[in-house]
Write a structure and sequence with these properties.
The protein is α+β, with helices and mostly antiparallel strands. It contains 7 helices and 7 strands, in the order ββαβββββαααααα. A 5-stranded mixed β-sheet has the order 2-1-5-3-4. The chain has a two-stranded antiparallel ribbon with strand order 6-7. α4 (139-149) crosses α6 (188-201). The protein is elongated.
Length: 225
């Protein structure tokens, strides 16, 4: 079994196929290879071991290693070691008001998948918007906001919606790259679309369109196109 690290180093492992974490990363570390990576729960729950394999985001503790897999760190996150990154989740969640602001006395709890996010950073790594805008709030932060906007027990929806107008829901290209790499099966694109709809209901609009005086695509109601 061979693996290739992002640096171009190729290693041959005399091991039976297993998960990326157990078969490759631990084996390399045990053999004396100077390799920095993260280990957490080892059960696909905490998200600490997220990396990229062949340009796709995975959890190292869940991914079944294949011959000649190329392993690289997540993109658009601060690199703290060879394969270890810091997504900056705390700061982004703070900017997005992604927490319960005011608890209502009655109401049903949120039942969607957005509440199961483990903040692994896989969706952020897959998002092409970060290539041009590091200020983008990103998929997991926006999904977390939808979790509270849709929760009937949240008594103040407006602050959540207002926080995601700039560098948020309208900066998303709706490419859908984030959903397939989420280990929890969350679809941030749909959560973002839901936030756009809810924003329109309360009178909020795309700040980029507002700055341009609205978009009419060349249509004049009196003269046509």
């Amino acid at each position: 079994m061979r693996v290739v690290l992002g640096s171009g180093q190729e290693f041959s492992l005399g091991a039976k196929p297993g998960t990326l974490l157990s078969t490759a990363l631990k084996a390399l570390a045990d053999s004396g290879v100077d390799l920095g990576f993260k280990i957490g729960c080892e059960g696909g729950v905490c998200g600490a071991c997220a990396v990229r394999v062949n340009d796709r985001e995975v959890l190292a503790c869940s991914y079944a290693l294949q011959e000649s897999d190329r392993i690289t760190p997540l993109r658009f996150s601060e690199k703290s070691a060879d394969l270890a990154t810091e997504s900056g989740a705390g700061a982004r969640l703070m900017r997005a008001n992604a927490w319960l602001i005011a608890h209502a006395q009655a109401g049903k709890p949120f039942e969607g998948k957005a509440g199961s996010c483990i903040l692994c950073g896989s969706c952020q790594s897959a998002c092409p918007v970060y290539e041009t805008s590091s200020d983008f709030l990103g998929p997991y932060a926006l999904s977390r906001v939808w979790r509270y906007v849709a929760d009937e027990r949240e008594a103040q929806k407006q602050p959540h919606l207002e926080a995601v107008q700039q560098n948020g829901i309208y900066d998303c290209t709706l490419c859908g790259y984030c959903g397939p790499v989420c280990p929890q099966g969350i679809d941030p694109k749909m959560d973002i679309l839901n936030l756009r709809s809810r924003s329109a209901v309360v009178g909020l609009q795309d700040p980029n369109a507002a700055a341009m005086g609205g978009i009419d695509f060349g249509f004049n109601p009196n003269q046509g196109f």
